[in-house]
Amino acid sequence: MELGRLEYLQALVTEFQVTDSTEAKEQVLANLANFAYDPRNYEYLRQLQVLDLFLDMLTEDNETLVEFAMGGLCNLCLDKTNKEYILEASGVEPIINCLSSSNEETVVSAVTTLMFLTTPRSRAQTTALPVVECMLRFSLSANTRLSNLASIFLQDYCSPPQVEEARNLSKHTAVGIPLPKD
């Protein structure tokens, strides 16, 4: 008997919750992140609290789990309901924390997600001074994907005074978020 979409996603969530295998958790989270790409799954993923699962995984020590969770959130946050949920669930801070990941995919997904989550109401948080400083450094990266994405972030989501303030501040400090490894 073939499982329906909701039942299949429920089976994945259940497998994630009951397995003790790190490898199985990684595989299931990768599958959920891939299913998050399809708008037909948004309602089911909300119903199964997968957004909370992804947000919870952002603070894990396992970089692979963080990468897949960040990718899943990036896939989901184009939807207005999902975007509002992430913002209401205080999801911006853990996403910003992912900017310091040594995993390139995690960082690229985090930058993209911050772009998608930026609204008039969330802009102060998504373009806070430390984020703008980080984007300035990323814009200088030898990694073309990251450099281009950060440049777009600075140009499209930050005001010129914000960028100037971050430039001036970063001239006087060595503190910052490290670039991801290539």
Radius of gyration: 17 Å
* CATH architectural category of the domain at 2-103: Alpha Horseshoe
CATH topology of the domain at 2-103: Leucine-rich Repeat Variant
Per DSSP E runs of 2 or more residues, the count of β-strands stands at: 0
Total number of helices: 12
Helical content stands at: 55-70%
What's the CATH class label of the domain at 2-103? Mainly Alpha
At the fourth level of CATH, the homologous superfamily of the domain at 2-103 is Leucine-rich Repeat Variant
Order of helices and strands: HHHHHHHHHHHH
Low-confidence stretches at least 5 residues in length (pLDDT < 50)?
Answer: none
N- to C-terminal distance: 45 Å
How much β-strand is present in the residues?
under 5%
- Overall morphology: globular
List the keywords.
182 residues, mainly alpha, Leucine-rich Repeat Variant, 12 helices, 69% helix, globular, ARMC7, Armadillo, ARMC7 protein
Commentary on this structure:
- With 182 residues, this protein is mainly α.
- The protein has a domain at 2-103: Leucine-rich Repeat Variant (Alpha Horseshoe).
- It is built from 12 helices and no strands.
- The protein has helices at residues 5-18, 22-35, 42-47, 50-57, 63-76, 80-88, 92-97, 104-117, 123-126, 129-139, 144-157, 160-170.
- The longest helix is centred in the N-terminal third of the chain and has 14 residues, at 5-18.
- The protein is globular.
- ARM repeats lie at residues 49-91.
What is this structure, in a nutshell?
This is ARMC7 protein. The protein has twelve helices and no strands.
